[in-house]
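User: Hey, quick favor. My workstation is busy. Could you predict this chain's structure for me?
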Amino acid sequence: MERRSFLKGFGVAAACAVALPHVASAADEKKPTGPNEMNYETAVAAITGGKALVASSKVKMEAPEIAENGAVVPVKVTVESPMTSKDHVKAIHVLASKNGNVRCANIYLTPANGEAFFGTRVKLGGTQDVVAIAEMSDGTFLTAKQNVKVTIGGCG
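Assistant: No problem, here it is.
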């Protein structure tokens, strides 16, 4: 009797081992995408509400021209602004144009910040443009970009 019980248990375990991976992969296919999983144009439209981006020398972005490791690429953004209640930077957005998740950082500011400055490290999956978008209090969107060549991708 023990032999039959063993064979039945072994048969059930083998059937589960074959069927479970197929059930799990089917569940993964139905998984919804996250709110930040969008292409560059869609992300810019979501930030600006369809308004045009204006390249400006007021937005200064520092990023390396060549990054040896795409997992930790330093980026600094400074926006020239008096930071008064009538004229200030409302937000700074940092995007990586070719990443699966193009939105790297969203920083919201008030006149109490005194200076529109932000520094961080971002992940880059390969060579691409890093773009900074500054949302101004008058409703305009100023931008600057820097192409970063990545030798070892960080999102792989």
